[in-house]
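New to this. Help decode the following:
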Amino acid sequence: MTKTYKLPIGPAHVGLKEPVTAWLDIEGERIVDANVRPGAIHRGIEYMSRERNPIQCIFLAERVCGICSFSHSIAYAKAVEDAAQIATPVRAQYIRSLVLELERVHSHILWLSVACYSIGFDSAFHLGMALREKVMDALEALTGNRVNYAVTAIGGVRWDVTPEVDRCVRDLVAYYRNEFQPYYDAVINDPVVKARLRDVGVLPEADAVRLNAIGPTGRGSGLRADVRESSPYDAYADIPVKSIVPQDYFGECHGDVLDRYLVRLLEVYQSLDLLEKILDGLPAGPIAAFPKPVAGLAKMKMAEGFGYGCIEAPRGACTHAVELKKGDENLYMWKVCAPTYANSQAWPLMFIGNEIADAALIINSVDPCISCTERMIVTDRTTDRKAVYTKDELLKMSRQKTAELRRRMGK
């Protein structure tokens, strides 16, 4: 009779770049079932926004994710602009797209390197880390920061593209076209890498649709799902983007870790082309809808309604929703849905049929950002009853505990 054991992976694990727990049911080395719990981090960003005005919340949005900080801040800004009916100048739209593509290059190269590290391909890991420096230098030249760029503004951007920045980005494109190809060849032409990644963590196209897989995870399963193509925004309205799927380049799609790897490799080249086209088409004009932030804040304070913003982040569709109340300077509501929240639904299916040694690689193949997916649940262990508590309920419980302590102490 076969015995099944439960094996926890994480939340702190040397093979994972983010804290997430995967409970694996194993028979020998084979995974037969899995349950994933991504809620290992809760920072209360959405709650904190209720005590801040929309401009102050930009800096919260940037800290939802370190690698995708600009993606989150732009999706958030678009939501506020939608709610307050604020039009963004065309030049600012192009600059936003420029930084989004730089961020995509940075994110993909970082992920590709971490994936190599997961399988013990350390030379490719170090090569990727060296390549990553160039795009971080370009981001620093434009914004002054290598992470959390602080370039987003409601109704535009804070920094313009100068001739020096233009030259820096064009040098970056030329550099990667020369230096990224050896990295591409080192991975794709290595038979060990192919054997290690092929048919591991398979997510068929039909299941990708059913489980709402997005970004490179969905495209790695053959889905033509890219917000830049389906709902073009900013510069992508003028510069067409085509979803990259394995079958268009290799004739077939397996939906495995290797296909997700290939999609990200090819998207780096796509981003290099887009960077050149954005710079070539960069229009003249202002970079902000308001001469001073206080003017924009006054307009937002008098706005009433719901706003929605969605962009294609490096990991997939990043969605923000806000609600503004007339006369209230602070946000009334803000809800964030990050790509990892959608893609994590497919993890259990990816695990089944693979070996324990594949677990960390499968988790990392989604390029998870667990801090982006923060959700809180409280468990009553005495009855094993799970309940989600609202802000008012938690506040009431806190005050009741204080009152009980006062009673016991006779105060």
In short: The longest strand covers residues 305-313. The chain has 17 helices and ten strands.
